[in-house]
């Protein structure tokens, strides 16, 4: 299955590159305000579903665009283009993200950033790789020496529990803060040591399933903002492990304050 995953995600990347050439003529829809989906998303989605069902007809599949396709024991979790807005704006930070679950546990993962020519892969208990080479998280342990990444899409800006308060609190603590537009790429970057951490609110399993395994196999840590897992996927905190406790302390502090301010309004 490992070679099959590599083959289909590589071909999905090639399909994406063909759509990049004609990005200005693509049909683009709005799933909801500011949330875009293009014909490239649908094309890659259908390609992956077709190939998986051809090879493993009994497997389940869950994709961002097609939802749940029931199956037994194994399930493929897919984001055909993670970072559609970035893709449509002709920036290179978009990816195809695929995770394979067995009995609810992710056992294989791959994230392909085709414009960047980077393929992140991981197998449970067998390490993480970038373009075939083993990767590990960075060893930096101070926030002041750390470069982090986050996301605060306009789609979620109207929510009472949004990312602005977290950004405001954390930014002075960090060496730098980046924003790419693909959670899967961000998690890969933490895994290979380019970043020390990533946090974001209100994500879905297909955004992070592959990235979580890649990061954990590279020595990193994935939790919610409290350091547990009860908040997935509303709260995602992924780090090299060395700055994790400091991040939990700050994020928890902001969350408590934000909760107090919004206690008279809608719940998170």
Briefly say what this structure is:
By secondary structure, this protein is of the alpha+beta class. The chain is 33% helix and 27% strand. The strands form three sheets. It has an eight-stranded mixed beta sheet, sandwiched between helices. Strands 12-11-13-15-14 form a five-stranded mixed beta sheet, sandwiched between helices. Strands 1-2 form a two-stranded antiparallel ribbon.
Entry keywords:
five-stranded mixed β-sheet; D-Maltodextrin-Binding Protein, domain 2; 2 domains; globular; eight-stranded mixed β-sheet; 7 helices; alpha+beta; Fructose-1,6-Bisphosphatase, Chain A, domain 1; 268 residues; disordered C terminus
How many strand segments?
15
Structurally, the number of domains stands at: 2
Largest sheet: 8 strands, mixed
Mean pLDDT value: 90
CATH homologous superfamily (4th level) name of the largest domain? Fructose-1,6-Bisphosphatase, subunit A, domain 1
Q: Specify the structural class.
A: alpha+beta
Multimerization state: single chain
Could you spell the SSE succession in H and E letters? HEEHEEEHEEEEEEHEHEHEEH
Radius of gyration computed on alpha carbons: 18 Å
* Dominant shape: globular
Bin the strand percentage: 25-35%
The CATH architecture classification of the largest domain is: 2-Layer Sandwich
The CATH topology name of the largest domain reads Fructose-1,6-Bisphosphatase, Chain A, domain 1
Number of helices: 7
